[in-house]
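Our consortium's second objective concerns turning raw sequence data into structural hypotheses that experimental partners can test. To show how far this objective has progressed, the report includes one record in full. It was chosen at random from the queue rather than selected for favorable results. The single chain below, 313 residues long, was entered without modification.
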Amino acid sequence: MRNKILIGLAILGVFLGIGSAFIMRMQQKPQPPAFKPASNPYSKGIYANGIIESAQSSGANVNIYPEVSGTVLRIPVSEGQKVKSGMALIILDDTVQRAATESAKAQIEVAGATLGTVDAQYRKLKSAADTDPRSVSRDALDTAANAVRTAKANLELARKQYQSAEALLSRYVIKAVADGTVLSINTSAGSFISTQGSYNTYTSGFSPVLVMGNLNGDLAVRCYVDEILIQRLPSPAQMQARMTIRGTDITLPLKFTRIQPNVSPKIELSSQRSERVDVRVLPLIFTFEKPKGLSLYPGQLVDVYIGEQTRKP
């Protein structure tokens, strides 16, 4: 009986081994790709990495730094909000500067009162000298006149100091210098910010306290062309390009805007200033009209192919 059980188990083990080997040798049919990889639509197209930006006449997004250091009291705007020029973006604690401004304003009253006193004294001496020149010495009259001139200068100085203090006080409210959209806010109420920006504990570096852009119209794509491919670029008049949105089969035509004529090290791999690479790139800026129903945001990476327009015979 025992031998029959062992023989049965051995036969079962053989069948299990054969079945496992058969299953392991079976090749599963590969799944179709979720989307087609970006392909070159031009016969002599050049590939470049691209990053979406808000369309600007020059430069890139508007990076806002405070002109004074202080603690953030309130942020009356939110990310994605459209703002008008002159609108308050960030309000800093201005307690100390406001007191200094009020003190400077009081100095104007003090200087004005001093001027009134010395001017009255000068007028009395001048009147007495006009009546009887021997009643007032020439030195006393000159001293009184100099005191009036000094008081006038002190009054003007107090006014300038007040204007300077008032101008500095206005810097504690960071305002938008142009119409646009708030792309990102890198600080919060209660945080301390300086003229270097806001300290980011994740990157251990400083960043702009607020970034603005123009999302009302077209968007822009900043492409980085490898320096070894620069000579293959078509002329600006004949240049055209298409971009592919990563993770999709969507391609969009691009309109050439300008070349930034400054070949610089490629630092766009991780956006770290300390990154060191041997490749240098030439930035090209294109614009495109954002299709309705398509989610595209500044900072999004895209694949771009640059080619030459086909000449009509």
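The partners drew two points from this record. The two ends are 94 Å apart (CA to CA). The domain at 36-55+217-313 is CATH 2.40.30.170 (Elongation Factor Tu (Ef-tu); domain 3). Both points have been shared with the crystallography group to help prioritize constructs.
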